[in-house]
Amino acid sequence: KLQFLYLIASCGRERSWHRRHPPAVAPARRFAADMTISQLFILSPRGDKIISKEYRHDMVRGTDEIFFRKFKFWDGPSAGDTPPFFTVDGVHYAFVKKNNLLLVTTTRANLSPSAMSEFLIRLTKLLKDLLGVLNEEALRKNFVLVYEILDEVIDFGYYQGTSTEKLVPYIANEPVPVEQDETAKKAALGSMSKSPLSRITGKGTKLKGAADAQKTILGSEKGSRKNEIYVDVLERLNVVFNSSGNVVNAEIDGAIIMKSFLAGTPELRLGLNEDLSVGTGDRYGGVVLESANFHECVNYSDFNNDRTLFFRPPDGEFVVMNYRVTHMDYHMPFTIIPFIEQVSPYRTELTLKVKSHFPAAVHASTVLVKFAVPKLTSSVSVELRGGAANQTYEYKAADKTVVWLIKKFNGDTEHMCKAKISFQQQAPEKVRREIGPISMNFEIPMYIVSGLSIRFLRIEERSKSYNPSRWVRNITQANSYICRIN
Questions:
Q1: Chain-centre distance of CA 204, in angstroms?
Q2: Distance (Å, rounded) from C-alpha 430 to C-alpha 165?
Q3: Gyration radius of the chain's alpha carbons
Q4: Would you state the pLDDT for residue 31?
């Protein structure tokens, strides 16, 4: 019955779309005949088809099963993980992975892979804005709303638009709220910080604020706005160390991300560090960014003078500024120092020392250290030192890897572990070359490596009674944090 009602509503929406947006010229002249996608589906981590939408009806059955089989057991010409674009029997597949969900499009046309990827990335942001949180439960509880969104963003395989602000007035269904899982909620709560914005408002930072940011903007349009705004300063690190613990290569990819629930569309003024410089500057006396780019709504005419930005925030989540730092004058949050000793032809020991260099008041959560062991390995035993109560390890014999987990890593401390690697037979000396590299994955709330900070966030041309809540988070994450042993 629900599917029948949805089919009727879907037909009505398609007719209403063409009434709202009459084509200026004939569709055949506007688009090339081969610039269409045929299918879009969303799969769970188990391969279950949660959402499936046919646009052209020119595909064989079972394309989702073909895709998932290739994704799990890639046997293409290049070894490693499944590439984001591949072709099977004349069908082109493109996918992105978000929160363990697989968003996939298929086509028989010679479409631009970059265009397909960009569309899927924008679709994930759109679904997150309208559902509040993007996970399997949210998709299942809001499947009618999701199909309505897919009807609006794609028409017979042609892209129509993924702007949250333009799409919201045409959405009739209301989302079913979905609670965050406890792990994600604790991570969000832990990442809130006392910030300059909290001092501006004269209020302390409320822990519930981070979780509240995971809500739909549709509720805000229906009159339940709380009149607040969230700002994230996020930095992802790409670092390579040598065996002595020295930095060989380092790069910081940063972004200032904003999500607005403000009443109306007020103009905002955002101030950054006064000693900030882009391209050139004194690297030892201020914050120097190699490059920076801004959202289309941002007016940066005064940025060179006083480091301020003016903009009217659109609905939903958007990136105010992207920036990049490539010089190695900053202290990385962790140093990895390995030491290998061949005890006998049948056993080798790897000693790892990981030291944190951020303030003691800050801690990193869920620090994961992973390294490979030689193929001849028969068993691995690990000795943990220095607060081993919050540490665990696991040897994965099938992958020949060891995973060391530190649940909470305090600042200005160090942890050590010794891995005793036993071999099935007598191993040559060069077997030590098969150990490593060592990779780390972590997240550090309330800490930014580059030193970028937000001085103020003001609302222009508003009365004193208009004083919305403002929240800020500083987060540092490891994107590729590797130590090369050999």
A1: 28
A2: 60
A3: 26
A4: 40
CA distance 171 to 168: 5
Count Cβ neighbours within 10 Å for each residue of 259-284 and write b for 16 or more, e otherwise: bbbbeeebebebbbeeebbeeeeeee
Instruction: Give phi and psi for 19, each to the nearest 5.
Output: -70, -40
For the record, the structure tokens of 481 come out as 């944090």
Cα–Cα dist 267/278, whole Å = 25
Task: Give every CB contact of residue 70 below 8 A, 6+ residues apart in sequence.
Answer: 76, 82, 86, 88, 93
Degrees, nearest 5: CA angle 285-240-485: 135
pLDDT digit string, tens, across residues 4-42: 444 444 444 444 444 444 444 344 334 444 568 899 999
Burial of residue 336, with CB atoms counted within 10 A of its CB: 0-12 exposed, 13-18 middle, 19 or more buried: buried
CA distance 439 to 353: 13
User: Measuring CA to CA, how many Å separate 56 from each of 60, 62, 117, 209, 381?
Assistant: 11, 15, 19, 43, 56
Contact 456, 308 (CB under 8 A): no
Reported as a pLDDT band with limits 50, 70 and 90, residue 211 is: very low
360, 344 Cβ separation under 8 angstroms: no
Whether this prediction's pTM lies above 0.85 is answered by no
Residues near 115 by beta carbon (within 8 Å), at least 6 away in sequence: none
Contact 243, 485 (CB under 8 A): yes
The pair phi, psi for residue 94, each rounded to 5°, is -135, 140
